[in-house]
Automatic annotation (TrEMBL):
This protein's name: Transcriptional regulatory protein zraR
GO molecular function, one term: ATP binding
Domain Sigma-54 factor interaction stretches: 148-377
CDD domains: AAA (cd00009), PAS (cd00130)
GO BP annotations listed: regulation of DNA-templated transcription
Highest taxon listed in the record's lineage: Bacteria
PAC domain sequence ranges: 82-134
Pfam family name, one: PAS
InterPro entries, per database record: AAA+_ATPase, AAA_lid_NorR, Homeodomain-like_sf, HTH_Fis, P-loop_NTPase, PAC, PAS, PAS-assoc_C
UniProt keyword ATP-binding, yes or no: yes
Length: 462
C-alpha cells in the first residue's frame, strides 16, 4: 500500500470518528479538522485553516499570561491534556460543553511540530445535570416537609405534630394505611430531633421470622444457636445514640413484645445466648397499619407494651382524605420519573388529572407513584392521557361521580397570613395567638420560625 493510499485511508478513518479532531501548529494555527469537528462547531475546514484556534474562545485557554519565552498554551507547556472539561463557542455563538484530550505531535528527530486534540460534546449531559439540579432546588422550595409533600390542612397539622414530637425523647408511633409514607414521617422526626447526628436504624418487623427477629434486634453471642459462628451486634446496639424505627410493629410476636418492654424500662439489651445487660441509649419510633387497641382487645398485642410505645401517636391521613394534595404529588412524581426516562413527555393532560382526582387510591401515595411509572411506559404522546393510566384508575371515572376537588391557592401563604393576623390581634402574644388558632404555643413558635416572622415587626407594620 502506497503512502498516498495510506494517507487517503487515514483521512477516511478520521472522518468516521464521532469526536471532533483538530490539528494545530506550534503557534496555534489550525492545520486540519475532521467532519465531526465541522458539525460540532458550525465552521467548515476552509474557514478555519490558517486561523488561530483562539477563534473557538475555549475557556480552558483563558487567563494564560506566560512570558514570550514560555509556551502560549498549557498543552505545549505540559505536553498533554487529559479529560479537561471546558467550553467552546460555535460559529453561531452557541456555547458548547466539551471534554478535551490533546497530545503533542513530534517529527522523527523529536522536535514538536504541532498538536492534535479531540473534543467530545457533553452539552446534553451538562443540560441534564442542570435540569436535575434545578428540579432538586424546586422540590426543596416546594410545599413539602423533609421529603413529605402536601399543602392540605391535614398535612399542615401533621407537619406541626412531627416538629413537636421530634424534640421529645418519648416513644413515637405512626399510624397509617399501607403506602401513606410512615417511614418518611419517622425519617423526618429523626432529622429534626436532637438525635439527628446519631444513627437512624430501620427494622421491618414483618419481614423476619420469629427466630431471627430477636437476634436481629438484640444480637447474639457465638454458639447461641446452630449457625451462630461469631458474636453479632443487634440493631438496638447499632442505634445507640440515635433512633430505631420499628416498622410493622403490630406483627411482633408476644414473646418479643415482652423483651422489648424490658428494653424500654431498663434501657439495656441482652444478646441471645447470654444474660449480660448492654446499656443502650435509643429512642423508639414505631409504625403500624393495624388497629392496635383492637389487637389488645383480642389478646394479640400486650396492653402494657402498647401503653409504652403509644406515648406520642401520630396519625398519617390516607390520600383519599387529602385529595387537594394530588396535583402537587402528581407533578412531583411526573418530574422525577421524566428525569430518569428518555421520553419527551411534556405534561399531564386535564383529563388524566381528572381521572386521578376521581380515584379513591386504596394504595395511597405509593399507588400514585406506581401509576406514573406505568404511565411513562404506556405513553408515546407529548401528554399523559387517561388511557395511559393503569386500567383500575381510568375505570373509576363515571358519570355519577362528583366533580373532582381542585385547589388553586397556596395553603402555606394562607397559613402565614393567618398567623400574622393572629399575632396582630393579640399584640404579639404567642400564647393568645395559639388559643385563637386552636394550636399549641410550640406550633406558633415553629410556624414563626418556618416563615421568618418577627412578631413585633409584623404587628407594628401591619
Amino acid at each position: 500500500m502506497s503512502e498516498q493510499e495510506l494517507d487517503r485511508y487515514w483521512k477516511t478513518v478520521v472522518n468516521t470518528i464521532q469526536d471532533g479532531i483538530m490539528i494545530v501548529s506550534t503557534r496555534g494555527a489550525v492545520v486540519s479538522v475532521n467532519r465531526a469537528f465541522e458539525k460540532m462547531t458550525g465552521y467548515n475546514q476552509d474557514e478555519l485553516l490558517g486561523r488561530e484556534c483562539g477563534i473557538l474562545e475555549c475557556n480552558g485557554c483563558k487567563g494564560q499570561n506566560y512570558s514570550a519565552d514560555e509556551p502560549w498554551c498549557d498543552l505545549f507547556r505540559f505536553g498533554e491534556l487529559n479529560t479537561r472539561k471546558c467550553t467552546i463557542r460555535a460559529r453561531d455563538g452557541r456555547i458548547i460543553h466539551v471534554v478535551q484530550n490533546a497530545s503533542l505531535l513530534k517529527d522523527s528527530s523529536g522536535s514538536v511540530i504541532g498538536a492534535v486534540g479531540t473534543l467530545t460534546d457533553i452539552s446534553d449531559l451538562i443540560e441534564k445535570d442542570i435540569q436535575i439540579e434545578a428540579f432538586r432546588q424546586e422540590l426543596r422550595s416546594r410545599d413539602g416537609f423533609h421529603g413529605i409533600i402536601g399543602v392540605s390542612p391535614a398535612m399542615r397539622q401533621l407537619f406541626d405534630m412531627i416538629e413537636n414530637a421530634a424534640f421529645s425523647d418519648a416513644p413515637v408511633i405512626v399510624y397509617g394505611e399501607s403506602g401513606v409514607g410512615k417511614e418518611l414521617v419517622a425519617q423526618a422526626i429523626h432529622e429534626i430531633g436532637e438525635r439527628r447526628n446519631g444513627p437512624f436504624v430501620k427494622v421491618n418487623c414483618a419481614s423476619l421470622t420469629d427466630s431471627l427477629l430477636e437476634s436481629e434486634l438484640f444480637g447474639h453471642v457465638r454458639g447461641a444457636y446452630t449457625g451462630a459462628i461469631r458474636d453479632r451486634v443487634g440493631r438496638f446496639e447499632t442505634a445507640s445514640g440515635g433512633d430505631i424505627f420499628l416498622d410493622e410493629i403490630g406483627d411482633l410476636p408476644l414473646i418479643t413484645q415482652i423483651k422489648l418492654l424490658r428494653v424500654l424500662e431498663e434501657k439495656s439489651v441482652e444478646r441471645v445466648g447470654t444474660n449480660v445487660p448492654i446499656p443502650v441509649d435509643v429512642r423508639i419510633i414505631s409504625a403500624t397499619n393495624w388497629d392496635l387497641p383492637k389487637l389488645v382487645e383480642l389478646g394479640k398485642f400486650r396492653k402494657d407494651f402498647f401503653f409504652r410505645i403509644n406515648v406520642i401517636p401520630i396519625h398519617l391521613p390516607p390520600l383519599r382524605d387529602r385529595m387537594e394534595d394530588i396535583p402537587l404529588l402528581a407533578e412531583t412524581f411526573f418530574q422525577k420519573i421524566r428525569l430518569k426516562s428518555d421520553k419527551n413527555i411534556k405534561g399531564i393532560s386535564k383529563q388524566a388529572m381528572d381521572a386521578l382526582m376521581y380515584y379513591d387510591w386504596p394504595g395511597n401515595v405509593r399507588e400514585l407513584k406506581s401509576a406514573f411509572e406505568y404511565a411513562f411506559v404506556a405513553c408515546h404522546d407529548e401528554l399523559i392521557l387517561p388511557g395511559h393510566l393503569p386500567p383500575a384508575i381510568y375505570r373509576e371515572k363515571g358519570p355519577d361521580r362528583p366533580e373532582p376537588r381542585r385547589t388553586s391557592f397556596n395553603m402555606r401563604e394562607i397559613e402565614k397570613q393567618e398567623l400574622i393576623e393572629a399575632l396582630k390581634k393579640t399584640g404579639s402574644n404567642q400564647s393568645k395567638a395559639a388559643d385563637l388558632l386552636g394550636v399549641s404555643r410550640v406550633t406558633i413558635y415553629n410556624r414563626m420560625k418556618r416563615y421568618g416572622i418577627n412578631a413585633t415587626r409584623h404587628v407594628e407594620t401591619s
